[in-house]
């Protein structure tokens, strides 16, 4: 266990050493990640490697179909960094992320929280897309967030006239009987992820004041 913990700590140190300065720009981890990646999936969402791969496949299929979308899965208030006042407000947080990403990304931004979904874009969102968001059932459990994101992305793409080729998507493998997912490594990974968010938050308080939705000033 100690050897595994040491390896995990070393990986965190390498990640911090190679991370660009912009990652600590405003204490909002999701916007920093989504500048370069299609998904923000924090440790505490509890996604398995199979779920992570499937989410990536769904996002890849959406991009291939012509439906540009990025997703932020927010499992807890801590995942918001310094934007904690938007916890429980997926629509407001989606608009916030859309502003943050608008200078490098002009597609849809989907937010998935336990209490519901939020969708925003630089261009008008279609009524059919809004119907998908308003009609979706809240995931509630953290373990259901990733699957809910995959399903919602597929429905949004279809509603916008870009149906995904679902036959090409991977299927999550069922857990093996007797297998354990509550060992020390997931806990260590969660604590390290929380530490990274805390570092980002602390840096943001020294860097600049918080920007709320409605401001179109570019991120520093």
- Strands of the widest sheet, in order across it, are 1-2-3-4
Order of helices and strands: HHEHEHEEHHH
Instruction: Output mean pLDDT.
Output: 77
Largest sheet, if any? 4 strands, mixed
Q: Which stretches are low in confidence, meaning pLDDT under 50 for 5 or more residues running?
A: 5-25, 170-187, 215-220
Number of strands: 4
Globally, the shape reads globular
The portion of residues forming beta strands comes to 5-15%
Report the radius of gyration as a whole number of Å: 17 Å
User: Separation of termini?
Assistant: 41 Å
Supply the helix-strand structural class.
alpha/beta
Count of helical regions: 7
Proportion of helical residues: 40-55%
Commentary on this structure:
With 220 residues, the chain is α/β, with parallel strands linked by helices. It is 45% helix and 9% strand. Strands 1-2-3-4 form a four-stranded mixed sheet, with helices on both faces. The radius of gyration is 17 Å and the shape is globular. Residues 5-25, 170-187 and 215-220 have low confidence and may be disordered.
Précis, in short:
With 220 residues, the protein is of the alpha/beta class. The chain has seven helices and four strands; from the N terminus they run ααβαβαββααα.
Element layout with pairings:
Layout: H1 2-18, H2 29-34, E1 39-40, H3 49-65, E2 69-73, H4 90-101, E3 108-113, E4 116-121, H5 127-135, H6 145-159, H7 184-207
Parallel strand pairs: 1-2, 2-3
Antiparallel strand pairs: 3-4
């Amino acid at each position: 266990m100690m050897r595994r913990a040491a390896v995990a700590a070393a990986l965190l140190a390498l990640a911090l050493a190679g991370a660009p300065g912009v990652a600590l720009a405003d204490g909002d981890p999701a916007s920093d990640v989504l500048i370069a990646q299609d998904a923000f999936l924090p440790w505490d969402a509890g996604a398995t490697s199979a779920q992570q791969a499937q989410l990536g496949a769904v996002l890849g299929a959406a991009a291939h179909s012509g439906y540009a979308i990025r997703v932020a899965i927010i499992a807890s208030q801590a995942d918001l960094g310094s934007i904690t006042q938007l916890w429980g407000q997926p629509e407001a947080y989606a608009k916030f992320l859309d502003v943050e990403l608008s200078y490098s990304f002009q597609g849809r931004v989907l937010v998935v929280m336990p209490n519901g979904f939020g969708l925003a874009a630089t261009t008008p969102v279609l009524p059919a897309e809004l119907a998908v968001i308003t009609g979706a059932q809240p995931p509630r459990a953290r373990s259901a967030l990733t699957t809910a994101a995959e399903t919602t992305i597929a429905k949004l793409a279809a509603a916008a006239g870009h149906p995904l080729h679902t036959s090409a998507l991977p299927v999550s493998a069922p857990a093996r009987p007797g297998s354990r997912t509550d060992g020390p490594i997931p806990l260590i990974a969660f604590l390290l992820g929380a530490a990274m968010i805390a570092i980002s938050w602390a840096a943001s308080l020294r860097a600049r004041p918080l920007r709320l939705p409605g401001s179109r000033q570019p991120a520093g």
